[in-house]
Design brief:
The strands form 3 sheets. The chain has a 6-stranded parallel sheet with strand order 8-5-4-3-9-10, sandwiched between helices. By secondary structure, it is an alpha/beta fold. Helix 11 links the parallel strand 3 and strand 4. It starts with a helix and ends with a strand. About 8% of the residues have low confidence.
């Protein structure tokens, strides 16, 4: 099994080298010429790649059946399971007797332990070799855990006869075997999605803690309470790290209450990281990013990186962020970052175009703007009070003016919309607006990722790419466990 895994890692390492070569070629092309590119037909390889992406990477199982894995995840899990069966049955163990068969299952189950830990490590050398973020190995972590679960019980069941015949129930290694099996069942029970999502800290504590992301000893409930966050900015001279935590309850509530209180006592925070592989969008001439809520964090850092990379670049880069939020006031989360983006765009030689489409799904639009981004004064609006072109507006006590949410230069980047976007149309329009390969990233709740998957398959497929549509490189990220 170890030989097969090493061979697979080697193949993915070669794939990573090829992908980096493609990125390098795109960057050279961006810096080489600002000549207008003419549309051209796409080859069969690009169309087949789009079909593979749609069928494996952008197709997920229903949450009640096998969520949140995609078809590709399920295929890898099945391949891992079959490889484990092949290793177990190697050299024909069925001719060895029941106890030898039991031992074979036990050996393979035990062999899963280092693999199970290795696939969940944050400092994962496989990620450096393959370019695959460590979070992408979670499904292999689960696959090895499932194999260990099944193989452990097969080993136990096949050993019953021998244990009973030899009266080994009180032997130390048998007793500790039961203790180990019971402890593993404990971990197994509390790894279900309902525990991971509703009792995340308990799940985190019940599992072996390998790394710590962010902890505050003064406000934490225990020494192992740590919380993961995505960095929302890029390195700067001040050495600042910007995070966008959302207040849900528990630890985040304690942080919020302390920050908003009159206390002048500082809270010491400890960071461990960063971990993972950052997607490099700077080699793409066209970038579309979709986010929901705090899922905007990875894309704000991408915005800053793209603007920084676009200085003195002969070829213009087009960047569009589509962000779904419940209330317009949430845009204040990234207002300083938008100011930084606007300042970068105004710098001499910056050849980047940025547009931010904000969709307010529940609340009202800012009073000074309509969904078409045309400024109007509230007192001159037509229609009945409390309406703005069919979009409900909050009363005067709750309504916010756009100028109180954004600076004037940041406001020029933002277009406001009510409701939810037609993502298939958004993706299709962006793909048709460019002649080069484009990047599509999505980060947010699982529902948003699934919706984007469907929209991507509708907007970009074998037929559309064969007719000349730009190939799309897809980078999905999901919030939560």
């Amino acid at each position: 099994m170890w030989c097969a895994i090493c061979a697979l890692i080697f193949l993915f390492a070669l794939r990573n080298v090829y992908i980096r070569y493609q990125d390098r070629c795109r960057k050279v092309k961006l810096l080489a010429s600002n000549a207008e590119q003419k549309p051209k037909g796409r080859g069969a390889a690009a169309a087949i790649s789009a079909s593979f992406r749609n069928g494996f990477l952008a197709t997920a199982f229903p949450s009640w059946l096998y969520g949140p894995e995609t078809v590709a995840d399920a295929c890898w899990t099945m391949a891992y399971f079959l490889a484990s069966i092949a290793v177990t049955l190697w050299n024909g163990p069925w001719n060895m007797g029941q106890q030898q068969i039991s031992n074979q299952f036990g050996d393979v189950a035990f062999a899963q332990a280092p693999l199970m830990m290795f696939f969940v490590m944050k400092n994962n050398p496989i990620s450096l070799l393959t370019g695959i973020p460590y979070v992408r190995f979670n499904y292999l972590h689960r696959a090895s855990a499932r194999t260990m679960f099944v193989w452990s019980w097969l080993h136990t069941g096949l050993s019953f006869k021998t244990i009973e015949q030899r009266k080994l129930w009180k032997d130390g290694y048998i007793i500790w075997g039961w203790v180990g099996l019971g402890a593993y069942q404990f971990l197994w029970m509390f790894s279900y999605a309902i525990v991971r999502r509703r009792l995340h800290q308990f799940f985190f504590t019940s599992h072996i803690v390998l790394t710590i992301f962010l902890s505050t000893p003064r406000l934490s409930l225990g020494p192992v309470e740590a919380h993961p966050f995505t960095i929302a900015n890029i390195p700067n001279a001040a050495g600042e790290v910007v995070l966008l935590p959302r207040v849900y309850g528990g630890w985040t509530s304690q942080i919020y209450n302390h920050v908003t209180s009159t206390s002048t006592k500082a809270v010491r925070c400890y960071f461990d990281g960063p971990y993972g592989i950052v997607h490099d969008f700077t080699s793409f001439q066209h970038v579309l990013m979709v986010a929901g809520g705090t899922g905007v964090s990875p894309w704000t850092s991408q915005l800053l990186a793209l603007v920084q990379a676009g200085r003195n670049q002969p070829t213009r880069t087009y960047v569009r962020l589509v962000w779904l939020i419940k209330q317009a006031e949430i845009i204040e989360w990234i207002s300083p970052i938008l100011d930084e983006v606007a300042a970068g765009l105004a710098a001499p030689g910056c050849n980047v175009h940025v547009s931010v489409d904000v969709y307010v799904t529940r609340g009202a639009l800012p009073m000074s703007r309509t969904s078409s981004n045309e400024e109007k004064k509230p007192e001159s609006l037509p229609g009945t009070p409390g309406e703005l072109d069919g979009v409900p507006v909050l009363d005067s006590k709750l309504a916010r003016d756009e100028q109180s949410l954004l600076s004037s230069r940041a406001s020029d980047l933002v277009s406001w919309h009510s409701g939810r976007p037609d993502l298939a149309k958004v993706i299709r329009d962006e793909a048709e607006a460019t002649t080069e390969e484009m990047a599509l990233g999505v980060c947010g709740p699982r529902g948003l990722v699934l919706t984007t998957n469907v929209a991507l398959k509708e907007a970009s497929n074998y037929a559309s790419v064969s007719k000349g549509q730009a190939p799309i490189h897809y980078f999905p990220e999901t919030l939560g466990q």
